[in-house]
Amino acid sequence: MDNNSAKLLYRIALTKINGIGDVLARNLLEAIGDEEQIFKSNKKQLMSVPGISTVLASEILHPEVLPKAEKELQFVEKNKIQIFFYKDQGYPARIKECVDAPIILYYKGNTDLNNLKIISIVGTRKSTRYGTDFCDNFLQDISSVFPDALIVSGLAYGIDVAAHKSALKNSMPTVGVLAHGLDRIYPSSHRKTAVEMLEKGGLLTEFPSGTEPDKFNFVRRNRIVAGMADAVIIVQSGSKGGSLITAELANSYDKDVFAVPGRITDQESVGCNLLIEQNKAALLQSADSFIRFMRWDSPKKDNKVKQKELFLDLTEEEQGVYDLLIEMGPLHINFLVNQLGVPMSVLLSTLLSMEMKGVLRAGVGNIYHLN
After folding, report:
1. Which of 57, 217, 240, 251 shows its CA 20 to 30 Å from the CA of 299?
2. Strand, helix or coil for residue 253
3. Are residues 168 and 26 in the same domain?
4. Do the domain assignments include residue 66?
5. What is the extent of the structural domain holding 55?
6. pLDDT tens digits along 41-85
7. Do 209 and 153 share a structural domain?
8. pLDDT over 90 at 356, yes or no
């Protein structure tokens, strides 16, 4: 086994320990410093980590943990599945900010999960023509301005699959977040759509192979749908359901949440109307209003902006940030760190200085915009 496979083995093993969730796994890594060393520690060393009891220390050292991880690693390598560990550069930066972010994500596809613009679209499984038409019209209009925006949903019946199909129809990348492993597609009737998504988009899950699409897995799935986007749109929803849970999660992550209004007599719109009434979602009518609300300026650089550049008094570090925002539009802070190659502490100081000069502003979700 080469070094890369060995590292993956111990990372997968972290998710195979009974009683150790994402938060405790991160605590272990912070305290011990290396995933392999965790499994080479003794009970006393493990129990020095906050939250690790005698029972949990025994579970970490259980002889079945590594063989289970090895079996999963074989599946991953055989099927050419990408693994994103939460410390990896390719791990979705927006999810990393969530307190309950998964330690590992399994991915099959060809699009960037750190796309500059990501929209999650979810809704009822009992969608009507009103909802599916909205998906078609909305994404057609969005694609005309931002053709590379990534559309995320859950590949479920109704609005979810309608959003994926609309994205594909408009040649936009789209990712389905699954509530099970990558050894199956659920529902099976969406297999054709899922295969098409692999060509322009992909399939993402935190669950290993062999995981059934059990009910409680869908709630866990929803937090990824909410966490990896800039904005979450609820197209249709009853008074209860997974899409309302997704909206609640998105609000807890400080994401922008939108709901498509419907007639008060339509059961499929009760949830959306309630979100709007309770100020838990902004009313969404069109792609234009969405773009204005998100302050997603046109990617084209006009002459007025070029002229403004001549009068700015910026340091070298500030100019680097400014040039990126001019070229690419509003950007997430983690993307800026990766592109500029500077420590987060240095970038935060630079951004604060630029805010004080009135050059830029911080938007929701640590997205930075030029003024």
Report:
1. 251
2. coil
3. no
4. yes
5. 3-78
6. 999 999 999 999 999 999 999 999 999 999 999 999 999 999 999
7. yes
8. no
Per the DSSP assignment, residues forming a β-bridge with 85 are: 104
> Both 56 and 133 in a single domain?
no
For residue 33 the two structure tokens come to 């410093």
CATH (domain of 21): 1.10.150.20
Band (pLDDT 50/70/90 cuts) for residue 298 is low
Residue 242: how many CB atoms within 10 A of its CB? 22
Residue 283 CB neighbour total at 10 angstroms: 15
Evaluate whether residue 103 is within a structural domain: no
Residue 86 lies in a domain: no
215 lies in the same domain as 241: yes
pLDDT at 97: 87
pLDDT band at residue 140 using 50, 70 and 90 as cut-offs: very high
Average pLDDT over residues 320-344: 86
301/214: higher pLDDT: 214
* Residue that finishes a domain, picked among 15, 46, 78: 78
State both tokens at 317. 């570090």
288 with 169, same domain: the answer is yes
pTM of the model: 0.80
pLDDT of residue 308: 45
Is residue 123 within 8 Å of residue 237, measured between CB atoms?
Answer: yes
- Residue 288 DSSP SS3: helix
- As a whole number of angstroms, the distance between CA 277 and CA 293 comes to 18
Is the CB of residue 315 less than 8 Å from the CB of residue 282?
Answer: no
Spatial neighbors of 173 by CB under 8 A, at least 6 apart, are 111, 115, 148, 150, 151, 167, 200, 201
Q: Token pair for residue 243?
A: 């899409």
Confidence class for position 216, pLDDT limits 50, 70, 90 = very high
| Residues in CB range of 189: below 8 A, 6 or more apart | none
Domain finish residue from 249, 266, 294: 294
Burial class (CB in 10 A: 0-12, 13-18, 19+), 155: buried
CA–CA separation, 93 and 190 (whole Å): 28
